[in-house]
Design a protein that fits this description.
By secondary structure, the chain is mainly α. It folds into two domains: 47-82, no CATH class; 101-259, no CATH class. Helix content is 64%, strand content 4%. It has seven helices and two strands, in the order αααβαααβα. It has helices at residues 2-10, 34-47, 57-81, 111-117, 119-156, 162-215, 242-264, and strands at 106-110, 221-225. Strands 1-2 form a two-stranded parallel sheet. The N and C termini lie far apart (120 Å).
């Protein structure tokens, strides 16, 4: 404190100068006025960070950019991985299966072969084809009849009275509008029937596979192999249980089919 007081007494009296201002030799420049000193102090404060008073504004912007980048990364992780957005706990789920000795028993079924050899799938496909052909025949018959009636009208319409012509044209127009929507309706019916067949077929296959697995090998995992969209590139042929599944499904279907035919009689 004594040294500071001595320095102050030796120096000429000046207005308060900010501590951050660079000290200039007394002989080089005149001392700053009070107004200029205050203005310099305000500019220095503006350059300092509002949080710590030590960093410049550029340092603050750099820090803010880093914080924003980290926030975006966390948002990306939460959004696309589901972390923190929902709970994975399901009170209704069964206890996880722990494989003995840490080894999973895995098998697979070739669904292409199954659909080609499973008699129920073959019968469903035939029923769908018959239904589709019947709908197409009905549409073609109505279209052919309409075209014949239209050509007949073009040939004999001039012999009709004006009232008869108007009535016939109104009838033909109504039939044409109906045929325009009939094709789309038939297509939707066929697609709906095929979807119902697929659901029924898959339910039967899945139910049998669960029953087979419970009574026989008790695999931990049974995969599906297809030629088009199989998730695997290679599977050990020793893991293939397709023939066993097909044989069991056909045996079950034969029993059910015989029972239904007997009930019809």
């Amino acid at each position: 404190m004594e040294e500071i007081n001595n320095n102050q007494s030796e120096a000429p009296k000046e207005e308060n100068v900010p501590q951050t201002a660079v000290e200039q030799p007394a002989a080089a420049e005149p001392s700053q006025s009070a107004e200029e000193s205050n203005q310099s102090a305000e500019e220095t404060k503006k350059k300092k960070c509002c949080c710590c008073g030590k960093w410049t504004m550029n340092h603050c912007l750099a820090a803010c950019n880093v914080i924003l980048f980290v926030g975006l990364v966390l948002l990306y992780v939460f959004h696309f991985t589901g972390v923190g957005t929902h709970s994975k706990y399901n009170p209704d789920a069964s206890e996880p299966v722990i494989a003995e000795d840490g080894v999973l028993k895995i098998a697979y079924v070739d669904s292409d072969s199954l659909l080609a050899k499973y008699q129920y799938a073959i019968d469903l496909q035939k029923e769908l084809e018959d239904y589709k052909n019947a709908q197409e025949r009905s549409y073609q018959q109505q279209m052919t009849q309409f075209q014949n009636d239209y050509q007949t009208y073009l040939k004999t319409g001039e012999n009709m009275t004006l009232t008869q012509q108007q009535a016939k044209e109104a009838e033909l127009k109504q039939r044409a509008d109906r045929l325009a929507t009939l094709e789309a309706e038939l297509t939707n019916k066929i697609m709906e029937k095929q979807m119902n067949y697929n659901i029924e077929l898959l339910n039967r296959i899945f139910a049998y596979v669960r029953e087979y697995n419970a009574e026989n090998q008790q695999f931990d995992l049974i995969m599906r192999k297809t030629f088009v969209d199989s998730p695997t590139i290679y599977m050990n042929p020793g893991m293939d249980i397709t023939d066993e599944i097909i044989a069991g499904l056909n045996k079950e279907y034969k029993t059910v089919k015989a029972k239904r035919e007997k009930e019809k009689k």
